[in-house]
Amino acid sequence: MVYENILQEIESRQELLCALNDYIWDHPEIAFQEKKASNRIIEILEAEGFAVERGLAGLPTAFSASFGEGHPVVAVLGEYDALDGLSQKADCFHREKEPDTELGHGCGHQALGTGALGAVLGIKRFLEDCKIQGTVVYYGCPAEEGGSGKSFMVRDGVFDDVDCAFTWHPCDSTDLFSGRTLAVIGVTYHFTGVSAHAAGLAHIGRSALDAVELMNVGANYLREHVPQETRIHYAITDAGGKSPNVVPAKASVFYYLRSPEPDTLLEIYERVNKIAEGAALMTGTQVEVEYHKGMNSLLPNTVLDNIMYDNLKSVPYMEYTEEDIHYAGKMKDTIQNQQTTFEELLAVLDHEDKQKILPGREDVIYRFIKPRPSIEPLMYGSTDVGDVSRVCPVSQIHAATWAAGTQMHTWQAVAQGKSSILHKGML
Q1: Distance of CA 383 to the CA centre of its chain
Q2: Radius of gyration of the chain (CA)
Q3: Cα–Cα distance measured from residue 249 to residue 209, given in angstroms and rounded to the nearest whole number
Q4: DSSP per-residue codes, 255-271
Q5: What is the pTM for the complete model shown?
Q6: Three-state secondary structure call for residue 167
Q7: What values do phi and psi take at 166, rounded to 5?
Q8: Is the CB of residue 30 less than 8 Å from the CB of residue 102?
Q9: Is the alpha carbon torsion for 121, 122, 125, 127 positive or negative?
Q10: In a 3-state reduction of DSSP, which class is residue 131?
Q11: 117-128 pLDDT, tens per residue?
Q12: Are strands 73-78 and 164-171 parallel, antiparallel or unpaired?
C-alpha cells in the first residue's frame, strides 16, 4: 500500500475521531447554526497546526483550515448539519425521540465532517513524512441540507485556488459516488388577495388560496412538456387560515424544481413564474416570487474517479464482530421497502468482492465495494457539491456506515449514528 503512513495516522486517531463523531451527534444543529460542531472541529485543527480562516462567504459556521504550502492544493469537504424532525435515541430499534430536541443526524453528516477531518490529518502526515510540496485544506461547509452553503462559498470564490476536491457520504454500502445529479431551484410564490365574508360578500373577495391552487394545476400540466428527468414538487406553506367562511387574503406555495441541465432548469423556472403570474391574473390577486436558492448538477470527473475507485479497492476492508452482525440484523428488521435486494447486488459482484461477504449474515452488512456501472447513472437528488464540481474537479465515495437497507433521512440512520458499524465505516 503506497499510503501506509496515512492509514497508520488514521488508525492512531480512532479515539479522537469516534469521540468527535459522537459529540456532533449528541449536539445536532440545523443549517447555518452549527456553532458547536464547527468550533469543535476548528479546535482540533488548530491544535494540529492548521491555519484556520473563519466566516467564509459571510457564513459564520463556514471555515477553512490549511496545512502545507504551494500546489497542488487538495481540498477535503466536510459537513456537519442535522435535520429537523428526526430526533431519535441512539442504538434504539424502534422510533423514539430524544426528549430535548427535534433535530437528528439522519444523513450522517456528523460522520461526514469527522471522516473528512481524519482524511486531512492523514494527508498532513503524508506531506510531513515525504517532505513534498503541497497544501491540504479542510473546508467546513455548513447547511448542505436545505441551505446550500457550498453554493455561497463557490459564488464568493472560496474554491478558486483549489486543484481538486474530495468528499464522501455515509451510506449502507461502499461505492464510487459518480454520476450526474439534478440541479435544483427552491422558490416560494406568495399570493395576496382581498379578504371577505365567504357567504355574504364573496363577490368582493379575491382568494389567494384560489391562486395557489390554480398555479399548482398549471404546474402539473407543465409536467408533460419538460424533459422526462425533470422533477416538480411543492408544498402549500400558507393556506390562508383555518376558517372556510373567510376568503383567504394570503397564501403561499413552496416549489422545488429539478432538472439535470442548469440552463434547462432556468427555462423551466421562467415557465413556472409565468404560471404563477397567470394564476394571479385569473384570480385578481398579486404574486411575489421569493427565490431561495439554486444548486448546480454534479459534473463527474472520470480521471479522479478512476484513481479514487482504484484506491478504494486497495484499502484494507473493515472487520465486523458478532455483536456488529447481530446489531445490524436487528436494525435491518425494522426497515421496509428495501431499495436494492442482496440478490441483486450479488449478481453484479466479481469474485474478489464475493470473498468479502460475511458468511451466514451477508444480507445485514454489505462488506464489499459495489462495482462501477458501465454508464454513469443519473441520481435524482441534488447536492451543493455540484456547485464545487463546476469550479474544480471533484470525486467522492459512499462508505458503508449503516445496516444494509438503511436509507438516508430516516430514524434508523439517526439511531445508528454512534454505533460500532458507523465508526468503522467512517474510519
Answers
A1: 6
A2: 24
A3: 8
A4: EEEEESSHHHHHHHHHH
A5: 0.89
A6: strand
A7: -135, 150
A8: no
A9: negative
A10: coil
A11: 999 999 999 999
A12: parallel
